[in-house]
Amino acid sequence: MEKSFIFSNTLKWKDKYQASMFFGDKANFEFATPPEFHGPEGFISPEELFVASANACSLTTFIAKALKAGINLISYESSAEGILEKVDGQLMFTQITIKSRIKTDSDKETVRKIVEQVEQGALVFNSMKTNITIEATID
User: Fold this and answer.
1) Are 46 and 53 in contact (CB under 8 A)?
2) Which fold has domain 46-138?
3) Helix ranges restricted to H, 10-107
């Protein structure tokens, strides 16, 4: 039988387009609508969190699969960019591109196959409508 997991957070509205998000006894932060949508400067936006979630899931899924495969990871860095545009009259993310740089002294073809597995089956990716691609450079 499959387990189910619950992840939760709480938010509290502060002013206009700004609020605080709390994760129990973990970190909390203030966020706001991005300036493109009349929010104040200097805050993380839900849109940025959406793209960051895909980027973070890419890393954590890669790490899990690489460890299982016995890959010796020397370093991993990535950047992510999401494209938000109108589709059928509604704004939505149509593409997220994750550019990762992976350094390893293990078999590079095995690492490339793991990247492909991540692209096809990372948990957060599977939960999004957005097309997500990973452009990996493996050194």
Assistant:
1) no
2) GMP Synthetase; Chain A, domain 3 (3.30.300)
3) 46-68
Task: With H, G, I as helix, E, B as strand and everything else as coil, classify residue 53.
Answer: helix
Burial 101-112 (b: 16+ CB within 10 A, else e): ebebebeeebbe
Q: What is the pLDDT of residue 129?
A: 92
Task: List the structure tokens of 61.
Answer: 């899924």
The encoded tokens of residue 103 equal 């350094």
Among all chains, which residue has been given the structure tokens 């009259």? 89
Question: What's the pTM?
Answer: 0.92
pLDDT 10s digits, 11-42: 999 999 999 999 999 999 999 999 999 999 99
Residue recorded with tokens 């938000």: 84
Instruction: Assign 84 to helix, strand or coil.
Output: strand
Read off the pLDDT of residues 90-126 as tens digits, 9 standing for 90 and up. Answer: 999 999 999 999 999 999 999 999 999 999 989 999 9
